[in-house]
Amino acid sequence: MTATTTSEPTRTGGVRALYSGNAGAVLGRGLLAARSSTWVVVVSGFFEPVFFLLAMGVGLGTYIGDVALPSGREIPYAAYIAPALLAVSAMNGAVYDSTWNVFFKMHFGKLYQAMMATSLGPLDVALGEIGYALLRGVVYATGFLTVMQLMGLNLSWTAILTLPAVLLIAFGFASLGMAVTSYMSTFQQMDWINFVLLPMFLFSATFFPLSVYPEPLQWLIQALPLWHGVELIRGLTTGELDGATAVHVGYYAALVAIGVVVTTRRLRALFLD
Predict the structure, then answer these.
(1) Residue range(s) defining the domain that contains residue 93
(2) Can you tell me the mean pLDDT for 208-236?
(3) How many domains does the chain have?
């Protein structure tokens, strides 16, 4: 009888030590798990911004009237807050899966330890998990964009570009969310995520123009990632595009790069070093 031996996957260093080119396996595993466990959460995540739009945009909007854009052009209140809620929808979908789900897999399911005991590297895991969170954000946003179209709230042909913009926003929040979660070790620490998300939702020019806030607060709001997402989507749905649009895109591109790099390094430090 011939004895058999097992050995750990070979990691040759450099890029191959971080990435095996199989992030799709991690993404596929997430999709299979979602089929039976999280469909109720996904459905509820879609309807939440729709209810906000009906209550605030249609209900309260009747009393508010039109809102002036920075260019001086006036649009209905519902058309003003709808793109903001679209950005929020992408953020919520991406953040949920890149934070709480990742936290459970990391500390209770011990899933990442098992994954990186195979040929998968930390970059495979990072891209796979971020990709799954990104898909969820895009599903939310696509459904909400359809509602906006049916309600006549897309005021320009450039609204078609909101889909790749939403993809970028979801990617940015998913990568940032997973990077932050990699530093969390307790449920109490995870509560800080909701503590940060709620003020961003309320104050990122979601329901009111930036000009209503004091100037020091305006500078703080403009540093928040959601504000850039709201302004990017609002510019596309209203056709109000200018040089700031490129700034918003660049902001999210930097967010994606930072999030992916930090997440990869943290996974390597936690499970390989």
Answers:
(1) 27-271
(2) 92
(3) 1
